[in-house]
């Protein structure tokens, strides 16, 4: 038996393995994820429902309901102004009777109260006669003789069609009247109907006083229950309260308006399908709810109760309208959140629901919506899984984007034209997760292949080449491409003396080299540079390859300045260490040459070993420029192309026109003397002006003027807080001028300096 079970498991695992090899592990994993997500959609847990209803909210925000030009509903608002004039709530029933009388005079078609009157009027004269202490018998008899306020209100209710509000209760509430309470009749058509299972239910129902209930033309529950996130989206038309099926306020208003005695509830196996009144059928969800299509809060719906009682409402303002009496007062706690408003009075929600029902503007979610959404999800996701090997990541993204656009359009079209809510978010989210699964598994497979390449070639190829080879194995060949690059050479000056200092301590020399090469390397790499090679104490680097860099000249300049700053920090640290240890220290000084031009860059070498490097005349010139830094007493020497590219942002000064060793054509060379802030400063502007005057005087053979200008430049450079280290440059020009005063150059002298050393 055990052998059979083991064989069965092996058979299943073998089948999965063969299937994975046939369709690919990525597609197999994506298919499994799709099945799991479809099961989640069918189960419809709260997070999925929350995502769906927020999508429906977004549709309403994008296209809120446009109210009809002639609105069939109005609201008499017991607002703050009314409470201020007539006193705090609750008002006496005689004042409410006066509201009914005013509305009857105004020609209102139906009046409905978004209020429940479950207790006797505490200000009714007969009740006061029994409760007020210290009354004389004459006063008490006079109060008893006055009419009961609740009966006055009931008589006013009986003179016109009035629907009273009721509210659901969390505990059973006993009916205090004689005989059964009046209620709206309901009839069920369809399959066997179980209100306990189908409808939203409450243990109790708080009714109005019996005298008021019997006088009213209708009664409806005004309880509005928000969803989990506190937003009102759906409102039940019928619910179960106190053991019986009762209509909500809006539905019973319509029943009274149509003259019907009974509500016809149509059902099927899933629950409620629709509710029918004469000439009106309202589709609902299985729990008897409808989605309200909201318009933004509209103050134009409201008439202040104060204005109504004072007779200042225009004569036709309420004629032939369904009038809801309620409150917008914050203190009476009847405000709710809707998809469009953070705070909307509950009475306005009932008014908007009534307009939905009267104009046919309700929203519906078909009972088969789950199957439709699951089918769309499966179809799109399966298409992506099937086409994955053909389309590739970008093709899948474009295909998925096209399908996503169609789903979004379908959702919008059904909402805007038919009021049908179709959730596109779950198909989109599922499709996106399937796409990510395919992309991730493909990425994982590629990364595994790259690791194999690194393991195979990492021992005898340079790390840079191994990484490029891992990213694109097809690049494993000799050759290169022509590209405009910025090349840098840096070298430690006087390294021979340093090596001599460490002649008995080779480990110390190695540690020192690592100590200064590391920060210089970081300065280059931090600014998108590529290290070509280390040559003892020298570094060769370049920009704009292998990755393109549109600002390669600027990045090279920034790297050079950072290298000098890091060398200063290193020298300061070494001096502190030397003082603490009581031993001498030789400071490190670096010279940098930078040049820009067209070079060949790529994999250079032999069939046995090659590296990513750069060749070309600009490389040789950059090397020669670095060698001139010591002669001119500066840290950085720039070629003309580099200087032209950065002079708009960096402070650049011309050094000389030089014919470097190995070149016939002279090069105009420059130096970089600071950062971008110094370039914009007034001291640099003064220095640049005096420096240009010195160069001009030198080339015009005005040697006394050259000496004076060099002295002025040197003094200004020493004053600057920038700490310019170019004193040697001006000492050089002063010495040249002094020499030419003693022995002038030949007539054919063109101002070009011939470099005799590399």
TrEMBL record:
SMART domains: CHASE2, CYCc. The keyword Membrane applies. GO terms for molecular function: adenylate cyclase activity. Residues 486-626 form the Guanylate cyclase domain. It comes from the Bacteria. The chain crosses the membrane at residues 425-444. GO terms for biological process: cAMP biosynthetic process; intracellular signal transduction. Its EC number is 4.6.1.1. Keywords: Lyase, Membrane, Transmembrane, Transmembrane helix. It holds the Pfam family Guanylate_cyc. This is Adenylate cyclase. The lineage of its organism: Bacteria, Pseudomonadati, Pseudomonadota, Alphaproteobacteria, Hyphomicrobiales.
